[in-house]
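Predict structure. Input: Ribosomal protein S18 acetylase RimI, 1027 residues.
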Amino acid sequence: MKTTLEKVRIVEYHEGLAKGIAKMWNESRENWGGDSTVTTEQDVIEKEANSSNLHLYLAMVGDEVVGYCGLSQYREDEGAMYIPLLNVHPDYHGLKIGKQLVLKALEKTIELKWPRLDLFTWPGNTKAVPLYKKCGFFWEDRDDTTHLMNFIPSVLQVDWLKPFFEKHDWYSASQRIIEVKPDGIKDKDHTYYEYKWEAGDEFVRVQFERTGRGIRLIETQELLVEMKLPDFKLLEKEEHLVSYRVVNKTTTPVDVSIWGMSTEIVNHSFIGKETVEGEWTGEYPAVLTLPDREPSPWKTHPVVSANIEVDGKLFPLKMGVYPKQAGKLHLRTVNKHWRQNQKAVLHLDIESQLEDDAHWTVKLPHSHVVKWSQAEINAEIKGKSRISVPLHAELLKNGFYSEEVKIEVVKKDGESFEFSSRLALEFPGLGARFGGESEYHWKAFTGPYFVEIEKRNHFVKIGSVLSKQSPTILFTPRLGKPFSEEFSKKEASSVEYIETPEAFVVKTTLESEAFPSVVLNTYFKLYGSGIVDIKHEVVNKSKETKEQLYLIQPLPIEFKGMAIPQKEGVVIGDEVMMPFMDYIRDKEISERWLFTSGANGETKGLAWPEGAIGRKNDWHFAIEYKVDPVQSQGEVCLGPIQVGINTAPSWKEWRSLVLGDDMKRLEECPLYSLEPSDGNLVSAAGDHAGYSFRSMLTPYLDGTLELKNEDESMDKTVTKKDETTDVNVELHHREAGLKRIKGKFHSQGQRASFETISMVTGEKEIIEIVEKADGWTVDNGVLSFKAAEGYYPGIYSLMYKNKEFLHHQYPAPGPKAWWNPWGGGIRYTFMNVSPYSMLKEPTSVNPVTKQDSNGNSWRGLAVTTVLKEHESMKGITLRQYALTLPEVPVLAFYCEIEQESGRTFTGESVDLEVFFKPGETLTSSFVKLPSDGKFDTYYAGIEEFVIGDSPFIQAGSDERKEQAMLIHPDSAKMTEVYINQEVLVAASSEEWTAASGESVKVKPTMMVLGEEDLSGAYKQLRKISFN
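Output follows.
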């Protein structure tokens, strides 16, 4: 693409540019790993409306958006602006558009008088590193992140240096050597970042110390001023000499005034005045106090600093420092879960921060949590070394051990001193509820479940010590709008632990500056079931009502094994590929819950209250509240958000827990599927039926679909330019029957195979239903089944290709195995009504026609039994339905329970039993089940087997090729197969509840017959339901 730098304009964002930004992102995916995310104009408008950006700069070539650069306050540290996202359209690389955008952000940072501009990238982004470094950034040498800092704004604010930069452009005059590696000049444990500029006879050299984020040296052609610390890590309560050096390179004496700056952590008070003709060096003491916690690499460290005035021009010098004690002590354990009176070995890890070898004595105080076998520890520790001391202990009670311990240290030269350190360790156990504070976190426990709150940024982890899955994470909550990142840099002003009869609560308080007089209280309530309720309380301490407040709670969810409710049903993450947040259709989330599950069976549930919105927030999920007006001195409570750790085994139970049991049933939708376009599995012979390959994710499909049906095959190709998530084709079904349709979809990055079925009805659509001497017979042209009022309430015979599939003893029921009387066949029955009692009740058989949810007519028999004699069940009517389609080897079984008993039934069971005998002999009959084990086929008539839960089974015989596949409904609470020397029975159980006057209908059990294995499409048959 041909363009010139002169054509590029840098403008600020407005909504009119949202469509252009969306186009840029959709065409820039190769810059970001090649993901297939589709961004829309509305996505951009919503994202930028909720963004924490103070400014958003866009590069324009004509009317096209070709570059993007955000600018916000840095959320991890004080005193810095931040570029959260930078992108240049791949067609416009090499035109220095990125440079223009970065310099624009830097220019704004300087204008706003911020001292620093930061950004993050990834280690492999080597193409961008030279650009960043030329623009003034330094690459920090860290293992945990790729962080860059730009101190140009600080340099340009130094009065002494302003004359140079008023004459010379800092970018053009830079003499810095650019290398694609982390920056820094090492001086013991300090790291310095150095700028250097030259223009004619003038030059400027400035060094910044990494952890203090401040200037430690300035040099020009006339003068050098610098400070230096003896080391980076310095012992508390001792004097350390800080050296200052001034070199006057001119022949004119220079007046220098210097005075130290003290803080709560650093005492560095002094005043000095000198007239420097050549070189002057001065040393002044600094004494450090240990801060409440160790300095973090994410934040500016404590600094030793002084103000220097040279010929009336003032500037500060400062260097970061790491105050330390003589040693660091940590109490640790390899155990995750504890029981009272348990004896175990704990580990006291001691790290000496002394230069000298010494004898250490640690005195462990008495505790109500742990009993020590030895209360005093003595050890010889070499200088700058670590040891781990095993401690034998007995747990007196589950709880939080937190004690101040005294340490005596005697050096080799006889010098001795004492210091104290706090040891903290949690001992969670069955039913124990407690909380406590460690060096970096506040923690609360109920049994194995925990909430862990990071002090520096209010990140929260919710999990179980017994779980192998990663905890659920909550990022820092944000008040808005615009949403502020302020709480990511603040520690909670107070933390409370509250015990209630049903749960344990930890409360944190965060005080806002972005929204003055607003306080955010957060309550984490841990239940013993693994549920954690999170409530937010917005408090107004001002004299005026606070209106138009919002609160957002970000949660970075991993969408593995996901279940997401949408208008089509529950989208199930049945692929090994784990979708990105941008792949989720968040606007189509239809209910207020999400669910994820791991391969090991562990689960996580998330729910939010009515009125809150679950939505995409940048690359993660978030829950947003619009806060009602908060009256003066009042508060508004929000929530709860609920997190469940292994609380529910599946999404269905989690949904019931969140929404209640009376919600409409939702069907499962796979991420990718091949299905009839209209969702109807039934078509007619001679018709052209439409089929769709569909994706439930947002990326457009890009590949070729191939379909095969009988002797017909066809393919269709789509590209991203088609902007579609489904591919539609038509197939001609010439003959009636059950058709297996196989498909493949292949793109450059993926290959998939799948199948669906079609129940193609005969052209005549005639099903013969007649009453004969042996009862009622239904014949659909390819199969027939029978029921008789005088035999046993159910379907006793099923013929396919003139051979019986069911086991029965028509015309007279009698004893068989554990049953008496036994009728065999297919029947629904109540657990507490014996076969003998069932035969006492009147049964009728009638022809029936039923419509399924797609309007297809199914015909068959209704077997109705009215319970009049049974003591506990009288007043119940059981209607059993057996239905089929013309010339299709398929049957549907379901039942209705009409309840007119004058009482309420709760948690009752209705069971379906199917007695198979596909062969002439029982010993030739077998059942086959999907299995992760070695055996998947079991023969009847030989020995006893009880075979557990399975979504479907296949019954067949060595004597014939045809098999019957029985597909249990997904609502079944139990499925099994029982085999012994006399029977082969497949069974399922459904739970039902009904008040008097109500009716209950259970989901259908489907059966298909034939030679082909149709197990790959069993989930689609499960979707059939009847009106």
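DSSP finds ten helices and 79 strands in the chain.
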